[in-house]
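Tokens for (apollo) hypothetical protein. Go.
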Amino acid sequence: MMGKRSKKKLPGEEVFEETTEEEEVDTSAEEDSEKEQRKYKPYFVSDYNRRYPEDSVLVEFVVFVESNDERPIGTRDMKSLSTHMKRFNKGIKYLQSMNKYKIGINFEKPSLANAFLNNVTFLNEYKTKASIPAVGTEISGVITNVPTNLSNSRIFGMLTAQV
């Protein structure tokens, strides 16, 4: 077993150090644990926004609107808020308060809900952000026979690759 050795550093020389076998094992174990953590880390696609499919079979198309700056919008009068929003956006059926900072806007058609999501000027002017629930847009299911050594980003790349 060898210990650490170092010599005095002269100008223009680097310090010589020898590591022990124990230290090498520790660093490789740390690297392995970091790889494992990165492997199962959720993979987020940049610039991804959910959209309702045009041929959706849903009856109502909900868009959630929430305040960017923690301003309560769910406690306002829904009738006046609905009237104001209908001036700038088409197809709104009714508004529904979710909580203090979030409201749900129900639309008649998926194209009108998607148009509201694209109305960036309206959302920026009133300091709000819009999103839609995952249940209405994403298909849930089970993917079988996936090797466990693949990372989430690699799996996403394989699913979206054109064959």
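The first helix runs from residue 21 to 39.
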